[in-house]
Amino acid sequence: QVRLVESGGGLVQPGGSLRLSCAASGQTSSTYALAWFRQAPGKEREFVAGISWSRLNTYYEESFKGRFILSGGDAKNTVHLQMNSLEPEDTARYYCAATGSTISTRPSVYDLWGQGTQVTVSS
Fold this sequence. Notes:
globular
């Protein structure tokens, strides 16, 4: 059974950085795209960034361009989300998701989700 496991969340001061990682374990296929979503209390889950199955193409929600960088890891089943210049508004639970389709901003497209990792930006 395939699982997605996120790591790297934590407490950071405003202006700081965090690097989240998502690793797929189990009987994985390389032909799946991965994406990061986040959800703050009382808000809908929102798309942050995604990476194609080839790990060559990345996509960002406009508001995260320039601050967040998504990249493939050394292993094709691992991706990293580098988050810079974090603000209190970035406080949320961040989720990794996989789809056998192309990257989409719609959560319903994704077949598999991790448990999420909490990011808290506070002084």
